[in-house]
Every structure is written in structure tokens, then in C-alpha cells.
Amino acid sequence: MIAKTLIGSDFSGAIHYGAGYTVEGKEVMNKADLLIAHNVVSRDPKGIAAEMQQEALYSRCKTPVWHSSISWKPEEKPTREQMIETANLYCQKMGANPKDHQVVVYEHHDKPHQHIHVYINRVPTDGGKALETSHNYARNVRICKEITEELGFAKLEKLEEGKLRHVAVNQEEAQKMVNLAIKAALKEKSDTPEDMEERLKKEGIECKYKVEEGKLKYSSYSYQGVPIKGQDVGFTAKQLQARLDKNQQLVQEQEKKPQQEQKRRRGLGL
Description:
Layout lengths: L1 E7 L2 H9 L13 E6 L6 H12 L8 E7 L8 H15 L8 E6 L6 E7 L14 H16 L20 H16 L5 H9 L3 E8 L2 E9 L2 E4 L7 H31 L3
Helix pairs in contact: 1-2, 3-4
Organism: Dyadobacter flavalbus
Pfam families: Relaxase (PF03432)
InterPro entries: Endonuclease_MobA/VirD2 (IPR005094)
């Protein structure tokens, strides 16, 4: 089991996507099933989104939308009850007790593996402090491991370098464009994070890199306003740095060859 989280400001777009529709009401995928609806009266996406937006209206929180996708391995077939239990446990372990937060969960059927989308209003119903968002990646890893052990699910195998993970429909184009641009830059011997960033910028891709002591420690991207994490474009920061280091070594070796050839010729008296 694995989870990925996005934080946003608009419940309407998020909840409509969860329900399988555009904001205009056009169906965009096969039927999506509503599994959970805590602290909301409505059952249609427009009504649910309006209730959640209203709850957050008087809070200072500018990004009240918490959206996590939780996936199982293709060979695993969790029951409806197991998916509901997973979602409730996930919310509790994240600090969003379903008794105190508005929570809506949908099951999607657009991928070969079973997966659910969990929507949490970060603003609790009692108007208290908004749900913390720091260290989401590490928290997701830890909590999924705990739930996997508690409920007996298997872990999703780590994807190989260059392979694309499943992302939201609105991220698929950005995922593809960033993946192809990185591969092209590596093929052209890009050898530093700065060089990679410059090459991707020419393709209309914004990079957000965190570099420490010359090494890439974190990566994320944005294409046409759509953000996407480095791990979702086929290259984690660690994997990308390893490829850049390899290119740097190749470039250095190529630069040494003429010098070595000159020494050899001088040694032969040529």
C-alpha cells in the first residue's frame, strides 16, 4: 500500500474529480463510488464541496484541501469494508480524526490496481488548528507501513528509475513532458542540477531543486501550472543526481582524451 498527498485551496475541483466529474458536470471516468462522507450532509460533489468550503471560509488556512490517493498492488483485492477501514485509520494516524474533520472518500475504477481518494478538510469542525502538512512524504511512508502491518496488506514494489507512477488525470501531461525532457537532457550529457534546470526551463518546465553541498536533495516540477513531484516523473532526486554524476564523469573522461593523446604522441616523438 502506498499514499501520495496534494494540498490545495479549491474543494470544488478536488471533490468533483473524486466523484469522477468535471466541475461542469461532465463525466471523466468510469463510475466512482462514494465510500465515506463524515460530517457532511450532501452526497453530490457540488453540495459536498460547498459544505467543506464553507467550513473553511472563516479560517486563516489558505489551503484547506487535503487530497491523498491510496493504492494497493494489482494482485490485491481489498473489500469495500477494508478500504473504508484503511481510509479511517489513515485519517486518524495523520491527525484528522473523522469525528472532528469533514472527510470524503471515493473509490476509482480507472486503473488496473484498486485505489481510493481521500479528501480531508484541514480545518476541523470545531474551528481549531488546521491539520499539519509538514513532512507529508515521510508521514505517508510511515503510516502506510503501519496500516499494511495492521491490516495485512502487501507493499507496492518500488518503481524502477525512469518508470512512471500513477498520477492524477490532470497531472498526466506534465508527468510525460517532464519525464521526456529529463531523459533528453541526460542524453545530451547534462551533468549538474543547474544545467538540468536551465535545459528544462527552455522546455517550459519550472524546477524546484534543493541542492546541498553540490548534490541534489529534493526535486519537484511544474509544467503549464501543474505541479508534480520528482518521484512521479521517474527520477527521484537521488536517482537524478546519480545520473548527473555519471554524465559528469563521462564528460571529464572525454576532456582528458585529447591531452592523453598529445602526451602519447610526444612520447613517440611525433
